[in-house]
Design goal:
Blueprint (H helix, E strand, L loop, with lengths): L1 E3 L2 H15 L4 E5 L4 H16 L3 E5 L7 H15 L2 E4 L5 H7 L6 E5 L4 H11 L15 H16 L7 E6 L9 E5 L3 H6 L5 E8 L11 H15 L1 E5 L6 H11 L2 E3 L5 H7 L2 E7 L4 H8 L6 E5 L14 H10 L5 E3 L8
Parallel strand pairs: 1-2, 1-4, 2-3, 4-5, 5-6, 6-7, 8-9, 8-11, 9-10, 11-12, 12-13
Helix pairs in contact: 1-2, 4-6, 8-9, 10-11
Protein backbone atom coordinates (compact mmCIF):
# COMPACT_ATOMS: atom_id res chain seq x y z
CA UNK A 1 0.00 0.00 0.00
CA UNK A 2 1.14 3.52 -0.79
CA UNK A 3 -0.13 6.67 0.94
CA UNK A 4 0.16 10.01 -0.85
CA UNK A 5 -1.09 13.53 -0.15
CA UNK A 6 0.46 15.52 -3.00
CA UNK A 7 0.94 15.17 -6.77
CA UNK A 8 4.74 14.98 -6.38
CA UNK A 9 4.43 12.10 -3.92
CA UNK A 10 2.18 10.23 -6.35
CA UNK A 11 4.61 10.89 -9.21
CA UNK A 12 7.43 9.43 -7.16
CA UNK A 13 5.38 6.36 -6.24
CA UNK A 14 4.96 5.77 -9.99
CA UNK A 15 8.70 6.20 -10.50
CA UNK A 16 9.43 3.78 -7.64
CA UNK A 17 6.96 1.17 -8.95
CA UNK A 18 8.41 1.47 -12.45
CA UNK A 19 11.94 0.80 -11.25
CA UNK A 20 12.86 -0.21 -7.73
CA UNK A 21 9.46 -1.49 -6.67
CA UNK A 22 8.27 -3.41 -9.69
CA UNK A 23 4.69 -4.58 -10.17
CA UNK A 24 1.59 -2.64 -9.18
CA UNK A 25 0.39 -1.07 -5.95
CA UNK A 26 -2.73 0.03 -4.14
CA UNK A 27 -2.31 3.80 -3.91
CA UNK A 28 -4.36 5.58 -1.25
CA UNK A 29 -4.82 9.30 -1.91
CA UNK A 30 -5.42 11.15 1.35
CA UNK A 31 -7.02 14.06 -0.43
CA UNK A 32 -6.30 17.60 0.78
CA UNK A 33 -8.83 20.44 0.57
CA UNK A 34 -6.79 22.80 -1.64
CA UNK A 35 -8.45 22.86 -5.11
CA UNK A 36 -5.16 23.20 -7.02
CA UNK A 37 -3.63 20.20 -5.28
CA UNK A 38 -6.80 18.14 -5.71
CA UNK A 39 -6.88 18.88 -9.41
CA UNK A 40 -3.28 17.76 -9.94
CA UNK A 41 -3.90 14.66 -7.83
CA UNK A 42 -6.93 13.74 -9.98
CA UNK A 43 -4.77 13.93 -13.11
CA UNK A 44 -1.98 11.92 -11.48
CA UNK A 45 -4.52 9.32 -10.33
CA UNK A 46 -5.59 8.89 -13.98
CA UNK A 47 -1.98 8.26 -14.99
CA UNK A 48 -1.57 5.77 -12.13
CA UNK A 49 -4.63 3.80 -13.23
CA UNK A 50 -3.29 3.76 -16.81
CA UNK A 51 -0.14 2.14 -15.41
CA UNK A 52 -2.23 -0.64 -13.83
CA UNK A 53 -2.28 0.60 -10.24
CA UNK A 54 -5.35 0.59 -8.02
CA UNK A 55 -6.16 4.08 -6.74
CA UNK A 56 -8.33 4.57 -3.68
CA UNK A 57 -9.42 8.20 -3.24
CA UNK A 58 -10.17 9.15 0.36
CA UNK A 59 -11.90 12.40 1.28
CA UNK A 60 -9.72 12.39 4.37
CA UNK A 61 -10.37 15.97 5.47
CA UNK A 62 -14.09 16.47 4.87
CA UNK A 63 -15.37 17.30 8.33
CA UNK A 64 -14.28 16.51 11.86
CA UNK A 65 -15.13 12.80 11.63
CA UNK A 66 -13.41 12.22 8.26
CA UNK A 67 -10.09 11.08 9.78
CA UNK A 68 -11.85 8.47 11.93
CA UNK A 69 -13.80 7.13 8.94
CA UNK A 70 -10.70 7.07 6.74
CA UNK A 71 -8.47 5.35 9.27
CA UNK A 72 -11.22 2.91 10.21
CA UNK A 73 -11.79 1.99 6.59
CA UNK A 74 -8.10 1.45 5.93
CA UNK A 75 -7.04 -0.32 9.11
CA UNK A 76 -7.69 -3.90 7.93
CA UNK A 77 -5.93 -3.41 4.59
CA UNK A 78 -3.06 -1.63 6.31
CA UNK A 79 -2.52 -4.40 8.86
CA UNK A 80 -2.33 -6.97 6.06
CA UNK A 81 0.11 -4.98 3.90
CA UNK A 82 3.62 -6.46 3.90
CA UNK A 83 5.09 -3.28 2.41
CA UNK A 84 4.03 0.32 3.02
CA UNK A 85 5.16 3.21 0.83
CA UNK A 86 4.80 6.75 2.17
CA UNK A 87 5.49 10.14 0.66
CA UNK A 88 5.51 12.38 3.73
CA UNK A 89 6.85 11.08 7.06
CA UNK A 90 6.07 14.49 8.62
CA UNK A 91 2.35 14.13 7.90
CA UNK A 92 0.29 13.60 11.03
CA UNK A 93 -2.13 11.52 8.98
CA UNK A 94 0.65 9.20 7.84
CA UNK A 95 2.07 9.04 11.36
CA UNK A 96 -1.31 7.89 12.67
CA UNK A 97 -1.55 5.24 9.95
CA UNK A 98 1.97 3.98 10.64
CA UNK A 99 0.97 3.11 14.21
CA UNK A 100 -1.49 0.58 12.72
CA UNK A 101 0.98 -0.94 10.28
CA UNK A 102 2.66 -4.32 10.76
CA UNK A 103 4.64 -4.03 7.53
CA UNK A 104 8.12 -5.51 7.52
CA UNK A 105 9.18 -3.22 4.68
CA UNK A 106 8.70 0.57 4.73
CA UNK A 107 9.65 2.72 1.74
CA UNK A 108 9.86 6.52 1.84
CA UNK A 109 9.58 8.20 -1.57
CA UNK A 110 10.40 11.84 -2.16
CA UNK A 111 8.16 14.62 -0.95
CA UNK A 112 10.61 17.14 -2.35
CA UNK A 113 13.35 18.73 -0.29
CA UNK A 114 11.61 17.61 2.91
CA UNK A 115 13.22 14.20 2.32
CA UNK A 116 16.62 15.75 3.04
CA UNK A 117 15.39 17.02 6.39
CA UNK A 118 13.71 13.73 7.25
CA UNK A 119 16.93 11.78 6.70
CA UNK A 120 18.93 14.30 8.73
CA UNK A 121 16.47 14.07 11.63
CA UNK A 122 16.34 10.28 11.46
CA UNK A 123 20.13 10.07 11.53
CA UNK A 124 20.33 12.55 14.41
CA UNK A 125 17.67 10.85 16.53
CA UNK A 126 15.56 14.01 16.48
CA UNK A 127 11.79 14.38 16.56
CA UNK A 128 10.15 14.73 13.15
CA UNK A 129 9.29 18.36 12.40
CA UNK A 130 9.22 20.28 9.11
CA UNK A 131 12.26 22.48 8.47
CA UNK A 132 10.35 25.77 8.26
CA UNK A 133 8.84 25.10 11.69
CA UNK A 134 12.12 24.26 13.41
CA UNK A 135 12.90 26.55 16.33
CA UNK A 136 9.25 27.50 16.85
CA UNK A 137 7.19 26.92 19.95
CA UNK A 138 5.26 23.65 20.08
CA UNK A 139 1.53 24.26 19.95
CA UNK A 140 -1.33 22.31 21.58
CA UNK A 141 -1.79 20.08 18.51
CA UNK A 142 1.92 19.25 18.51
CA UNK A 143 1.65 18.10 22.12
CA UNK A 144 -1.46 16.00 21.39
CA UNK A 145 0.24 14.28 18.43
CA UNK A 146 3.61 13.90 20.14
CA UNK A 147 3.04 10.21 21.10
CA UNK A 148 2.06 9.34 17.50
CA UNK A 149 5.05 11.24 16.12
CA UNK A 150 7.36 9.35 18.46
CA UNK A 151 5.76 6.04 17.50
CA UNK A 152 6.08 6.85 13.78
CA UNK A 153 9.74 7.69 14.24
CA UNK A 154 10.28 4.28 15.84
CA UNK A 155 8.47 2.63 12.92
CA UNK A 156 10.77 4.48 10.52
CA UNK A 157 13.88 3.25 12.30
CA UNK A 158 15.33 0.00 10.88
CA UNK A 159 15.16 -3.12 13.05
CA UNK A 160 16.23 -6.74 12.45
CA UNK A 161 12.57 -7.49 11.74
CA UNK A 162 11.91 -4.42 9.58
CA UNK A 163 13.64 -2.77 6.62
CA UNK A 164 13.45 0.93 5.84
CA UNK A 165 14.47 2.30 2.45
CA UNK A 166 14.41 5.65 0.68
CA UNK A 167 13.70 6.25 -3.01
CA UNK A 168 15.01 9.72 -3.76
CA UNK A 169 16.43 12.15 -6.28
CA UNK A 170 17.69 14.29 -3.40
CA UNK A 171 21.28 14.19 -2.10
CA UNK A 172 20.81 12.21 1.12
CA UNK A 173 23.22 10.49 3.47
CA UNK A 174 21.13 7.76 5.02
CA UNK A 175 21.89 6.45 8.53
CA UNK A 176 23.09 2.92 9.04
CA UNK A 177 20.48 0.35 8.10
CA UNK A 178 18.56 2.61 5.69
CA UNK A 179 19.13 1.82 2.02
CA UNK A 180 18.81 4.48 -0.69
CA UNK A 181 17.78 3.94 -4.31
CA UNK A 182 18.25 6.84 -6.72
CA UNK A 183 15.23 8.19 -8.55
CA UNK A 184 16.41 9.33 -12.00
CA UNK A 185 12.90 9.86 -13.44
CA UNK A 186 13.11 6.97 -15.88
CA UNK A 187 9.31 6.60 -16.01
CA UNK A 188 8.79 10.32 -16.68
CA UNK A 189 11.33 10.35 -19.54
CA UNK A 190 9.88 7.20 -21.10
CA UNK A 191 6.27 8.40 -20.78
CA UNK A 192 6.58 12.05 -21.91
CA UNK A 193 8.56 14.05 -24.44
CA UNK A 194 11.06 14.93 -25.61
CA UNK A 195 9.69 18.48 -25.33
CA UNK A 196 9.78 21.31 -27.83
CA UNK A 197 12.29 23.91 -26.58
CA UNK A 198 11.42 27.61 -27.00
CA UNK A 199 13.81 30.55 -27.21
CA UNK A 200 12.47 32.22 -24.07
CA UNK A 201 12.95 31.56 -20.36
CA UNK A 202 10.42 30.27 -17.83
CA UNK A 203 10.30 31.08 -14.13
CA UNK A 204 9.24 28.59 -11.45
CA UNK A 205 7.28 29.88 -8.46
CA UNK A 206 7.69 28.93 -4.83
CA UNK A 207 5.44 28.84 -1.75
CA UNK A 208 8.10 30.37 0.57
CA UNK A 209 5.88 33.43 1.01
CA UNK A 210 2.88 31.29 1.95
CA UNK A 211 4.91 29.35 4.54
CA UNK A 212 6.03 32.60 6.15
CA UNK A 213 9.71 32.27 5.22
CA UNK A 214 10.12 35.05 2.63
CA UNK A 215 8.71 38.58 2.69
CA UNK A 216 6.18 39.09 -0.16
CA UNK A 217 7.56 42.48 -1.28
CA UNK A 218 11.11 41.17 -1.52
CA UNK A 219 9.83 38.14 -3.42
CA UNK A 220 7.95 40.29 -5.91
CA UNK A 221 11.05 42.41 -6.57
CA UNK A 222 13.20 39.30 -7.02
CA UNK A 223 10.74 37.83 -9.54
CA UNK A 224 10.54 41.13 -11.44
CA UNK A 225 14.34 41.44 -11.63
CA UNK A 226 14.82 37.84 -12.78
CA UNK A 227 12.13 38.17 -15.43
CA UNK A 228 13.60 41.43 -16.77
CA UNK A 229 17.19 40.21 -16.72
CA UNK A 230 16.58 36.85 -18.38
CA UNK A 231 13.61 37.65 -20.59
CA UNK A 232 11.20 35.30 -18.83
CA UNK A 233 7.59 35.50 -20.01
CA UNK A 234 5.88 32.67 -18.11
CA UNK A 235 5.62 32.00 -14.37
CA UNK A 236 4.75 28.43 -13.39
CA UNK A 237 2.88 28.80 -10.09
CA UNK A 238 3.45 26.47 -7.17
CA UNK A 239 0.21 24.73 -6.27
CA UNK A 240 0.20 26.41 -2.82
CA UNK A 241 0.66 29.98 -4.04
CA UNK A 242 -2.27 32.24 -3.17
CA UNK A 243 -4.48 33.82 -5.82
CA UNK A 244 -3.98 37.42 -4.54
CA UNK A 245 -0.20 37.00 -4.66
CA UNK A 246 -0.30 35.58 -8.20
CA UNK A 247 -2.61 38.40 -9.34
CA UNK A 248 -0.16 40.96 -7.97
CA UNK A 249 2.73 39.20 -9.73
CA UNK A 250 0.87 39.27 -13.05
CA UNK A 251 -0.05 42.96 -12.75
CA UNK A 252 3.34 44.21 -11.55
CA UNK A 253 5.67 41.99 -13.62
CA UNK A 254 3.70 41.33 -16.81
CA UNK A 255 4.42 37.61 -16.55
CA UNK A 256 1.89 35.09 -17.82
CA UNK A 257 0.81 33.05 -14.78
CA UNK A 258 0.49 29.34 -15.53
CA UNK A 259 -1.22 27.00 -13.07
CA UNK A 260 0.03 23.53 -14.07
CA UNK A 261 -2.38 20.60 -14.05
CA UNK A 262 0.49 18.15 -13.36
CA UNK A 263 3.78 18.28 -11.44
CA UNK A 264 6.31 20.52 -13.18
CA UNK A 265 8.57 17.59 -14.08
CA UNK A 266 5.82 16.25 -16.33
CA UNK A 267 4.82 19.68 -17.65
CA UNK A 268 8.42 20.45 -18.62
CA UNK A 269 8.93 17.03 -20.18
CA UNK A 270 5.71 17.35 -22.15
CA UNK A 271 6.66 20.86 -23.34
CA UNK A 272 6.88 23.38 -24.76
CA UNK A 273 9.44 24.67 -22.26
CA UNK A 274 11.94 27.54 -22.30
CA UNK A 275 15.60 26.90 -23.03
CA UNK A 276 16.35 28.25 -19.54
CA UNK A 277 14.30 27.58 -16.38
CA UNK A 278 14.77 30.03 -13.50
CA UNK A 279 14.03 28.86 -9.98
CA UNK A 280 14.52 29.71 -6.34
CA UNK A 281 15.80 26.94 -4.01
CA UNK A 282 13.25 24.15 -4.25
CA UNK A 283 12.74 20.54 -5.21
CA UNK A 284 12.83 21.29 -8.94
CA UNK A 285 16.52 22.28 -8.89
CA UNK A 286 17.17 18.59 -8.21
CA UNK A 287 14.42 16.98 -10.27
CA UNK A 288 14.24 19.05 -13.47
CA UNK A 289 17.83 18.31 -14.59
CA UNK A 290 16.97 14.60 -14.32
CA UNK A 291 13.60 14.82 -16.04
CA UNK A 292 15.06 17.01 -18.81
CA UNK A 293 18.34 15.11 -19.24
CA UNK A 294 19.57 15.27 -22.82
CA UNK A 295 17.25 18.10 -23.90
CA UNK A 296 19.74 20.97 -23.54
CA UNK A 297 17.48 22.92 -21.16
CA UNK A 298 19.44 24.82 -18.49
CA UNK A 299 18.18 25.15 -14.93
CA UNK A 300 19.37 28.35 -13.21
CA UNK A 301 18.86 28.92 -9.48
CA UNK A 302 18.69 32.21 -7.61
CA UNK A 303 19.70 32.02 -3.95
CA UNK A 304 17.50 33.51 -1.25
CA UNK A 305 19.06 36.69 0.13
CA UNK A 306 18.99 36.71 3.98
CA UNK A 307 17.39 40.17 3.78
CA UNK A 308 14.29 38.61 2.21
CA UNK A 309 13.52 36.42 5.23
CA UNK A 310 10.69 37.36 7.55
CA UNK A 311 11.06 37.75 11.31
CA UNK A 312 8.96 34.61 11.73
CA UNK A 313 11.29 32.48 9.58
CA UNK A 314 12.93 29.52 11.28
CA UNK A 315 16.53 30.13 12.42
CA UNK A 316 17.48 27.23 10.14
CA UNK A 317 15.80 28.65 7.03
CA UNK A 318 18.82 30.29 5.39
CA UNK A 319 21.10 27.31 5.97
CA UNK A 320 18.54 24.83 4.72
CA UNK A 321 17.76 26.81 1.56
CA UNK A 322 21.45 27.32 0.81
CA UNK A 323 21.95 23.58 1.21
CA UNK A 324 19.16 22.86 -1.27
CA UNK A 325 20.94 24.92 -3.92
CA UNK A 326 24.48 23.93 -2.98
CA UNK A 327 23.81 20.19 -3.28
CA UNK A 328 22.03 20.38 -6.64
CA UNK A 329 23.79 18.97 -9.69
CA UNK A 330 23.77 20.16 -13.30
CA UNK A 331 22.45 23.65 -12.54
CA UNK A 332 23.66 27.19 -13.17
CA UNK A 333 23.84 29.10 -9.89
CA UNK A 334 22.88 32.78 -9.62
CA UNK A 335 24.41 33.94 -6.35
CA UNK A 336 21.80 36.64 -5.76
CA UNK A 337 19.16 38.48 -7.69
CA UNK A 338 21.21 41.69 -7.44
CA UNK A 339 24.16 40.00 -9.14
CA UNK A 340 21.79 39.09 -11.97
CA UNK A 341 20.78 42.70 -12.68
CA UNK A 342 21.92 44.17 -16.04
Amino acid sequence: MAFVESPVQLLNVLEWAHGAGGGTATIVVLSPTDPMTRGQLRRMAELAREEGHTVRWEEAREGALAPLHTIGGLSRLLRRAARVVIGDPFSRYVQLLLTLSRARDIVVVDDGTATMEFIAQLAGGERLVRWHRRGGRRGPRDLVFAPFTAAARRRLTPRPSRTVSVFSSMPVNAPDGVSVTENDFTWTRSRFGPPRITKGADLVGTSLVETGVVDPDHYLEAVRTLATTHGATRYFAHRRESTPKLHRLAVETGLEIVRPDLPLELIARRGPIGHRILSFPSTVVHTLPLALAGTGVEVAVCDIDPAWLTEAASPRAQGFLSGVTGTARDIHRLRSVHAARP
